[in-house]
Each structure stands twice: as C-alpha cells, then as structure tokens.
Specification:
- The relative contact order is 0.18.
- Strands 3-2-1-4-5-7-6 form a seven-stranded mixed beta sheet, sandwiched between helices.
- By secondary structure, it is α/β, with parallel strands linked by helices.
- The chain has a single domain, classed as Vaccinia Virus protein VP39 (Rossmann fold, 3-Layer(aba) Sandwich), CATH 3.40.50.
- About 30% of the residues lie in helices and about 25% in strands.
Length: about 150
C-alpha cells in the first residue's frame, strides 16, 4: 500500500530544495495530488498525464516529451514510471533542475541498478546529482539534479 503522505513529503522537499522555483512541471502526475500539494505551498504547477479523471488542477492531458516548451523552474516526477528517464533528459536539454522518486524501471532493471543508471544518465548530461530519502514507506529515494557549477 502506498504511503498517503508521499505527496506532501515530496512537495515539502521540492519547496525546500528549490525555494526559488515558482513554476513546476509534474510529469506523469496521475490525478494531480502532487500538484495540489505544490499549489498549497505557493507553487504554480502543471501536471502532465493521460488520465481522463483528475482533480481540478492545471492539467495537460498528454504525454510529456523533450520538445515541451520550457516554462518551468523545476521538473518533478513521483513514481513516474516510464517518464522518469524523460524528466532527467528534459532537465539536461533545457537546463532546469529535476527531482524524481523512481519506482519501476522502464527497462526491467532491478531497483538499485536502475537508481545508479538514472544518476549516471544525469551526470552524463552535465548535471550534478544528490540522493536523499523521504521519511515514508515504499520507494522513497529521491534523485535530485541541477546544472553542475
């Protein structure tokens, strides 16, 4: 069972680690619960997903791609599954920071090698990375990335 606090915990981390980020892209954000949590913390958020049933939040009913015009200060994904890699590649291409909480790999890789793979991908794109852990049940490791100084 997923930890119901995950949206608030991740939103708190995003607000703390990226205090100047006012506009957030939430990729593969499901119904928009992370969006709600970020808006409650004073952020503007656009959730990308293909769900037809979602909360009344700012929502783009489509897949997120590398060609999405960059109107965000940070790009995030909470258990974004197959979109996790796209978030990191987008960050590298557009020069915006990212925060992801990976769960499933998009290539059947086990969790720990998947985490190392994502960190290596970010670093290969010129991003510095940091790993932190949210105080919650389930997949709770967060990979943060931003342009290397």
């Amino acid at each position: 069972m997923a930890d119901k606090r995950r949206f608030d915990l991740f939103a708190d981390l995003i607000a703390t680690r990226f205090p100047d980020a006012r506009r957030v892209f939430d990729v593969a954000g499901g119904m928009g619960r992370l969006n709600e949590a970020l808006v409650a913390r004073g952020r503007s958020c656009l959730t990308f997903d293909r769900r037809h049933k979602h909360l009344p939040v700012e929502y783009a009913l489509r897949d997120f791609t590398l060609d999405e015009p960059c109107a965000a200060d940070v790009v995030v994904g909470l258990h974004a599954d197959g979109a996790t890699r796209v978030i990191i590649e987008y960050s590298g291409r557009h020069g915006v920071p990212f925060a992801v909480v990976p769960c499933c790999s998009d290539n059947s890789m086990p969790y720990n090698p998947w985490m190392r793979h994502l960190e290596g991908l970010a670093q290969s794109l010129g991003l510095s990375t940091e790993l932190v852990t949210l105080p919650m049940e389930g997949r709770a490791r967060v990979l943060l990335g931003r342009r290397a100084l």
